[in-house]
Amino acid sequence: MRVDRRIVAKSGGTDWRGPARIAAQYAAVTTAGLALMMPISYGWFGLAPYKIDLMVREVPRAMEAGAMVAVLTAAMVITAGSGRAAWYLAALALLGMLANHTGLPWIEVDSLTTINYIDSLWAGVVIGSLAPVAWTSAVTTSVFLFACLSAAILGDIVQRPTGGRAANPLERLLGGAPPIWLILTALVLVGLCVVARSVDVPVAEIDHQFPLRKVLSGVVLIMTVASISRWLAHSTGTFLIVAAAITLTVLGCTVAALLLPGRDGVAVLLLVAFAASSSAVITVPRPWWADLLAVAAVGFGVVAGRRWPLPGVAIGFSLALAAVAALLALHTTPNQFASVLGVCAIGLVGGYSAAAAVPPRAASAVVAIAALFVPSAAVALRGRSFGQVAYSTEWYRFAPDTHDAVPAYAALGIGVGAGAAIWLIRRLRQPERADS
Q1: Which of 161, 282, 333, 373 has its CA 20 to 30 A from that of 428?
Q2: Nearest CA among 80, 77, 110, 109 for reference residue 93
Q3: Beta pairing partners, 397
Q4: How far is CA 236 from the centre of its chain?
C-alpha cells in the first residue's frame, strides 16, 4: 500500500524536523542565557579600566532590561498565537546579536556598555519568543529549562582572571560573551528550521487578549529584586538594613507570585530562593572541569524535578544550600574541594527547583525564569565594599581571602520567606485539573 510521505511527516513517524527544532531551541536559548549572564568577554579585560568599570556598573540594568524584554516578548507571541512568528523573532534576534559582535566594532561603536545592552535586549527576545512554542510538550519544556538553567549557572560561576591567570579551556570556548561560533550555530539551526518550514507549530498558550497581569507580575518581580539589590550595594550592610531588604524582597516577590493565575507563582518563589542561595555559595578557586559537572548536575536536577515534582523539597534544598554556605563561611577558607561540591550543588538544586513546579502557562514560566537573570541580594552584599551590584570590580566571582557569611544569611531569610509564601499560595489556590 502506498503511503503519502506528507502524512508520515505530519504524524512525526520519520520526521527529522522535530529533533531539529529541539536542537535549534537548545542552541538559541543557551546562547541567549550566556549573553545575559556573561556580559564581559575575557578578551576585553585588556581594554581601558574606565570602560570595564562603566560596563560593570551598568551590567545589572542591562540584565533587568533583558529579563523584562523576555516577559514582554512572551506575552506578545501568546497574544499573536503564532509559532511561526516566534521562530522568526528568534532568528531576527540572533541576527542582531551576530551583528552586535561582528559589525559594531567596524563602525566605531567601542562602548562595551552599549554592546552589552544590545546583547541583553536581543537575548530577552530569544528567550521570550521560544518559550510559548517550547511549552507544547514535556520534552521541549524540559530542554528549554535545561538550556536556561545551564547557561545561567555557567555564566554566574565564571571566575575572574586574576594574577595573570590565563583563561581555562572552557572559558576560551565560551569566551566572547557569547562566542560568535555559538551565535552562528544557533542561527544556522534556527534558519534551517525556517527554510524547512519546520516552524509551523502551535503555541501552547493562546490568549488574544494581552496577558497584562502576567506582564505586571514580571515588572513587580524584576523591579523589586533589582531596586533592593542596588540599595543593598550602597548600604553599610547592618542587621536592620539586611532584615528590611529581606522583608521587602519577600513581600514584593509574593505579590508578583499572587498576580499569576493558579499556583503558577510557586515557580517564581522557588527560583527567587534558589537565585539568592546560589549567589551565596563560594565556588572559587576550582578546576575548569568542575563546570562540566555543574552542567551534568543541572540535567540530573531537571529530570528529577520532572519525575518527582515536590516544591517543598525544592525550597528545602535552597535553604540547605544557604545554610551550608553560611557554615563554610564561618569555619573554612576557600579551597578547591568545597568549590567543586558547591558548583555541583548549585547545578542540582537549580535544575530541581526549575522543574519541581513547572507552570502550565509559558508566560508565567518566563516570569519565573526572569528571577535567574536579575542579580539577587546576595550578589549586592558581595559588592557592597566597592558600591556595585557585582561579585567583584570586574563582575565575575573571585577567590576572597576570607568568607563573608552575610550573603548566606540573607539567602536563608529569603528562602524562609519564599517557603512561607509558597505555603500561602497552596492554601489559597487549588491545583488545576490536567484538562483545564
Answers
A1: 373
A2: 77
A3: 159
A4: 28
What is the percentage of the chain residues whose pLDDT exceeds 90? 58
C-alpha cell at 289: 572541569
pLDDT computed for residue 2 by the predictor = 40
Higher pLDDT, 167 or 73: 73
Contact assessment for residue 250 and residue 238, using Cβ atoms and an 8 Å cutoff? no
What type of residue sits at position 13?
G
Cis status, amide bond into 49, omega within 30 of 0: no
Average pLDDT value for the chain: 86
